[in-house]
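Before relying on records like the one below, remember that each one covers exactly one chain. Contacts with other chains, cofactors or solvent are not represented anywhere in the record.
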Amino acid sequence: MPRPSALGRSPMAWVTGVMLASLVVLALAGPLLWGAAADRPNPSAVLLGPSAAHPAGTDGLGRDLLARVLTATRPSLLLALASVVLGATAGVLLGACTAVLGRRARRLTAGLINLLLAFPALLLAMFLAVVFGAGTTGAVLALAAAAVPGFARLAQTLAAGVAGTDHLAAARVLGLRRHRLLWRHVLPNIAEPLLLSVTTAAGTALVALSGLSFLGLGVQPPGYDWGQLLSQGLDRIYAEPLPALAPGLALLYAALAFQLLGEVLAGSAAGRGPVARIPAQRPAPSGPAEGGTVLQVDDLTVELPTPGGTIRPVRGVSLSLRPGEIVGLVGESGSGKSLTALAIADLLPYGARVSRRTLRLLGADLAALTRKERDRHLATGLSVIFQNPASALNPSLRIGTQLTEAVRTHRGASRAQATAEAVDALRRVGLPPAVLRSRPHQLSGGQRQRVMIAAGLMVRPGLIIADEPTTALDVTVQRQITRLLTDIRRDTSAAILFISHDIALVGEFCERVLVMYAGTVVEALPAARLADRTRHPYTRALVTSVPDLTAGRDRPLPTVEGAPPDPLAPAPGCPFEPRCPRRQDLCAEQAPPLDDLGAGHRVACWYPLPVTADTKPVTAS
């Protein structure tokens, strides 16, 4: 949770603390100080307006309304908190257990959560309040049940990032039971965002509970809470508005206090992340997300407006990278590789629309951050090595200025400190300090690419996106660049997303390979399987098209017959169907899902190719 010192520096935190403290004091002292006046009827003071003796007036039995509003603080808060605690406990356990259940039970649980989310929470609470019976118990149980689906979905999403971690797999090997896996390895890693959600949900529950009491489904006489007092005062609102406004203002005050508490805690938790990862003198590498995932992307889709209509060059792409992992992304031009990378880095052209179910970088959900927080997080946690360093580097600025700009902007480093770090970054990529005084046009293509890598290292990123970094470089320099990236991965534990047309280079350099075609991932497999274990016809055709220097000169170079589909008129079936030699009727009717074949191998094909042992080795020329 956020540190008290961090909270104390915020004016909003002070205001929130005072508001919460006042609520606690009223809840504790209210019944003791004003309980007698709130319950004592006075037939001679029935339905009086505001006066010095009764600042908020009296009710139909002559009881002081201000005393009743202050005394109702305790039941209103306790009942709302009880419903939140019950709903959060049940929802979190339901959602988090998906990380430790078996495949079938996990699917059933996920289906149950999806089914529960289909019902609007408020309508569900009203329906259950009628089913359980009007009263305090029924209202609390109804609100708790209505809160379960939301907490379950949040816990399920967070637990998915923990489910595939090495420490959870090691605990499974040790034979720990599922409840111990849940309590020791899953819940501690997702506790903070869940606690932040509980604080904001408390304000919502307070309003909902008062709404049920207002409708006669909540607290019943002789008990009372703010909702019931509001209902009683509404009958005389035109003659005496204060008896109705007083409980309404109390409800607004308490709900606002809980909402502000959630804002303060969330803001402090988001603001402390970069400070904790980057010490003042020498920054450390950005850490991975909770659960050991640097990047998690689920169901990424990119839409681009064109004169002929809207196209979707990226459709439903999912990928993840662990610390120190090198993942290759291959495919023909126009397959969506670079757009996928640009969408992750938030660098898409103006007008492009991005949708995704999950996009987490170094533990942060980018969709939950403000624009300023997202820009800072991307600038310090991710670096992009572009295909053409000559255009990526500013020709009017010296290399030293461009290298030091990031650390001076995002970390407030002095010029001398930033220059020292730039010299260290250049030495790491094999360039002398004199390069700092050069301009891009004075360097060779290989040197400019090394400068781009050095610029990315200045912020110690957790993820490096290398978008065809070896294009237009000779074979010797290609080897130097890939060797340099390998050394950086080893020294910093940064994950690398390596985008290339060269499937042979990817096969030698990467650990896993994702093959894209027409904006979708059609095959994902370990790089060691590229030579003789590819199952998708498109991937097999790419491997076969790699030039073989031992082949006869009179033999034509293998190619992938046909052309990619028209993005303005996508077919309903498999996008590779028009070019596939194994196509059948089903291929033209329905797009195949990305099925898991085991051992980290997935393929999107209705009729995968059989495994062959005579495929030629994939080697870079």
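The longest strand covers residues 309-321.
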